[in-house]
Backbone:
């Protein structure tokens, strides 16, 4: 089945540690995105990528880093510089950035900083 | 600044009681307006894209409409399985970023 796979589903981290969230898609989509969702808040864009080896900052990129070495993969690293990293992280993909707006989302990764 | 505001924040309806959710938006140039459904602990699921004022889309008990300043998601004779958070988002022609509203939590009582 085609779709987006995020892992891990739940992750606990100690303060000061970096953590990497995995996102893999087999939809052959060019564009991939990372969003953050906090309780009672909308989705906020962290980073997006339109093509391999290229990515752009979203609205809340500080304290995060990404890479896009393969079309299928768009991992997100939450660094120790991120002041409030506890949140629900969502990865998404679309055929192209300026497309129909139909984003396909993964099941999410819930990060808790202890 | 591009902005999306959804109302109400939460809505409780009896099964069969029709209602509408509102999405007001401010954007420099609208490429598209989108509706998503999100179940607790899950990623959002795409419902509709609307491109221009006057456009309407339907899917089962849901109907989305668009004006120059807002969109409505009409829910006709809802069932308990329609309970979810409904998210509205817009994409601007200026930078193609998709901006989401905070959502409306809909609860349908049997």
Residues:
């Amino acid at each position: 089945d085609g779709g987006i796979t995020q892992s891990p589903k739940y992750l606990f981290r100690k303060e000061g540690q970096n953590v990497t969230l995995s996102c893999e898609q087999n939809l052959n989509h060019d564009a991939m995105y990372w969003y953050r969702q906090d309780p009672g808040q909308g989705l906020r864009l962290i980073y997006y990528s339109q093509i391999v080896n290229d990515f752009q900052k979203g609205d809340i990129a500080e304290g995060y880093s990404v890479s896009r070495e393969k079309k299928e993969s768009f991992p997100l690293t939450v660094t120790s510089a991120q002041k409030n990293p506890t949140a629900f992280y969502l990865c998404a993909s679309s055929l192209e950035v300026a497309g129909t707006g139909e984003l396909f989302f993964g099941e999410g990764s819930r990060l808790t900083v202890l | 600044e591009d902005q999306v505001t959804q109302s109400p924040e939460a809505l409780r309806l009896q099964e069969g009681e029709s209602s509408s959710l509102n999405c007001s938006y401010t954007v420099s140039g609208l490429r598209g307006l989108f509706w998503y459904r999100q179940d607790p602990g899950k990623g959002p699921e795409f419902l509709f894209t609307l491109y221009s004022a006057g456009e309407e889309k339907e899917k089962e008990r849901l109907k989305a409409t668009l004006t120059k300043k807002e969109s409505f998601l009409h829910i006709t004779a809802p069932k308990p399985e329609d309970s979810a958070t409904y998210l509205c988002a817009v994409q601007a022609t200026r930078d193609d970023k998709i901006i989401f509203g905070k959502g409306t939590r809909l609860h349908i009582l049997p």
Summary: Residues 2 and 26 of chain A are 6 Å apart (CA to CA). Chain A has a mean pLDDT of 92. Chain A has no helices and eleven strands. Chain A touches chain B at residues 4, 33, 35, 40-45, 48, 58-59, 90, 92, 97-98, 100-108, 110 (CB under 8 Å).
